[in-house]
Task: inverse folding
């Protein structure tokens, strides 16, 4: 039985991870730590409020005393570290918070883990610190460049990617210098339920439902490798159960798509969904799909993001061969699940959009 501290648990991947873990390992203790920034929503975990093996703590990963107390009080043996500032656009307009949370925050967490697991009298032999990182640390690929593997040199281009790269190095250093048992996963773009509507896929889906224009950066030819969020969680699960300490694992869906093609695919999927379900026209009357105009009429090209990386692609052969990782969703099945979730969870995203969701722990 594990006792997990999950940081950033009220964000997109953190929420899905907690749900994934709760479903599969009901006896494990989960302590969810999240400072509830704009991207965190405690209501995501509200269904667990009466679960005796679950606790939600509103707090900051930079609060080392708080983290130390949590590690001690709950006898945590595993940290799964998702908490981060995660939106590249925001890192361009305001990089400081990214450095604060992603670098200083990760370091603070490492110091707390070292103090409790390595430096105390009852040193915990079987601890595990798993750091969740991104493929963006490797920079950008040309159209014919080989996908990123674990030995690809780091070349981050955005302040977000640079801050994640720095945090990866700190995790490595705490392993190499102090013997903290760490692993790191560098994953490609995730999509799925609970993703904050500033990111490409939910933004497109909601704008199609609401009849708002779909902004596509530049010519939309940037390539990303898409992975359904629970496949990422499966990969983390495998690393936690069988990964080798000090190793890093690249995780991807082997599913490269140009942004414009992703947007067009979403448009055609939503067109078909409105065709096959008449009730959607009443529920979302402002959507062009309700007026048989075709969602693609909403596509609007906007000025490109500065320093926009051209292509990301992940070589996931290491985790596939050593840990038997196999993604279970295709892009088609994962997108269907994602679209259905946003269609059927309108109050979740409306509350975010109008800023009225209650985010405090007491409101869970
Ligand atoms: N979304 C992706 O496509 C993707 C891909 C690869 C890796 N990742 C990594 O996965 C992790 C989670 O990403 P996400 O998309 O769920 O992000 P997110 O922005 O949806 O969630 C981040 C969560 O961290 C919390 N948080 C932020 N600062 C905090 C702090 N100082 N203390 C405590 N909590 C804090 C936020 O409140 C939020 O709930 C990040 O580390 C990100 O770099 C994301």
Result:
């Amino acid at each position: 039985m594990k006792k997990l501290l999950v940081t950033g648990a009220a964000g997109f991947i953190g929420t899905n991870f907690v749900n994934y873990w709760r479903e599969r390992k009901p006896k494990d203790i989960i302590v969810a730590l999240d400072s509830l920034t704009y991207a965190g929503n405690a209501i995501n975990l509200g269904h667990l409020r009466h679960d005796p093996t679950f606790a939600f703590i509103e707090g900051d990963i930079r609060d080392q005393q708080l983290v130390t107390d949590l590690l001690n009080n709950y006898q945590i043996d595993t940290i799964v570290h998702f908490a981060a500032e995660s939106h590249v656009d925001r890192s361009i307009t305001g990089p400081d918070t990214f450095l604060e949370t992603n670098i200083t925050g990760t370091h603070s967490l490492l110091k707390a883990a070292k103090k409790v697991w390595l430096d105390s009298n009852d040193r915990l032999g079987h601890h595990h610190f798993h750091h969740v990182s991104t493929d963006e640390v490797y920079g950008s690929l040309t159209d014919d460049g080989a996908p990123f593997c674990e030995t690809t040199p780091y070349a981050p281009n955005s302040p977000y990617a640079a801050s994640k790269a720095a945090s990866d190095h700190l995790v490595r250093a705490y392993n190499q210098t102090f013997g903290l048992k760490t692993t790191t996963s560098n994953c490609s773009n995730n999509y799925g339920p609970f993703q904050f509507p500033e990111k490409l896929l939910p933004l497109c889906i909601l704008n199609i439902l609401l009849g708002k224009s779909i902004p596509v950066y530049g010519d939309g030819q940037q390539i990303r490798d898409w992975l359904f969020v629970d496949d990422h969680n499966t990969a983390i699960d495998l690393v936690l159960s069988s990964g080798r300490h000090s190793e890093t694992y690249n995780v991807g869906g082997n599913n490269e798509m140009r942004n414009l093609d992703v947007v067009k695919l979403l448009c055609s999927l939503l067109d078909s969904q409105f065709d096959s379900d008449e009730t959607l026209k009443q529920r979302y009357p402002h959507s062009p799909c309700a007026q048989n105009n075709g969602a693609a009429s909403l596509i609007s090209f906007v000025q490109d993001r500065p320093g926009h990386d051209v292509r990301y692609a992940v070589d996931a052969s290491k985790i596939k061969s050593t840990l038997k990782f196999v993604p279970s969703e295709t892009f088609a099945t994962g997108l269907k699940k994602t679209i259905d979730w946003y269609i059927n969870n309108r109050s979740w995203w409306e509350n975010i959009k109008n800023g009225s969701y209650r985010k405090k722990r007491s409101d869970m």
Summary: Confidence is low (pLDDT under 50) at residues 360-364.
